Amino acid sequence: MNMQDAAERADGLLDEVFAAIQPAVQWTHGPTTTGSCDVTRRRVVMTVISAERRGSFLGLVDRFWHKSQYKIKAVNRDADVPAVFAETKDGFGVSLIVGGEGQVFFEVDSPCVQESEVAGPASKPNGPSYAGAEIIPRPNVRDPFWSAGAS
After folding, report:
1. pLDDT higher for 133 or 74?
2. pLDDT tens sequence across 8-65
3. What gap in Å lies between CA 123 and CA 110, rounded to an integer?
4. What burial letters (b/e) apply to 21-37, b meaning 16+ CB within 10 Å?
5. CA pair distance 32, 85, nearest whole angstrom
6. pLDDT, tens digit, for every residue of 57-104?
7. Does an H or E element contain 86, and which?
8. Are 129 and 26 spatial neighbours (Cβ–Cβ below 8 Å)?
9. Which residues, in sequence order, are CB contacts of 117 under 8 Å at separation 6+?
10. Is 3 helix (H, G, I), strand (E, B) or coil?
11. With 0-12 CB in 10 A as exposed, 13-18 as middle and 19+ as buried, what is 121?
12. How far is the CA of 101 from the CAs of 23, 43, 51, in angstroms?
């Protein structure tokens, strides 16, 4: 497997978890980074996930990752910035991190693979793209379910 193959595998893992999130949330691509033998793909949730719904959101993703036989490596149960870190059977690290203002970040890190060029993600965000933007804005999409109770 080379870095492009790993990037495509990471995209597939992200596609799978976002397909499992119901009701669906709006997301955009975060930056792709590469190391000497690894690649990281990121997605940023643009839907406001209220503090009241945050536990449900994390629980839904955690259950999906368990069902997919990911090994849960660590859980940060902090009320304001919770996170879940897991690993697939083929060694890809997956994480969900809640950041400032409740913004949710997904990241997939590949294991060490053969060096190669890496193209941008083929999947299209289901909302505005911030490709090339210096800063991705805070979540700004309201959802009747996920944003319930948010001010």
Report:
1. 74
2. 999 999 999 999 999 999 999 999 999 999 999 999 999 999 999 999 999 999 999 9
3. 18
4. beeebbbbbbebebeee
5. 19
6. 999 999 999 999 999 999 999 988 999 999 999 999 999 999 988 899
7. strand 83-87
8. no
9. 3, 4
10. helix
11. buried
12. 20, 16, 9
CA 99/CA 105 separation, integer angstroms = 7
The tokens for 35 are 């190391």
Using a CB cutoff of 8 Å and minimum separation of 24, what contacts does 28-32 make? Answer: 28/125, 28/127, 28/128, 28/129, 28/130, 28/136, 29/120, 29/121, 29/125, 29/129, 29/130, 29/131, 30/105, 30/107, 30/136, 32/7, 32/118, 32/120, 32/121
**Tokens matching residue 87:** 């690993």
Q: What is the pTM of this model?
A: 0.94
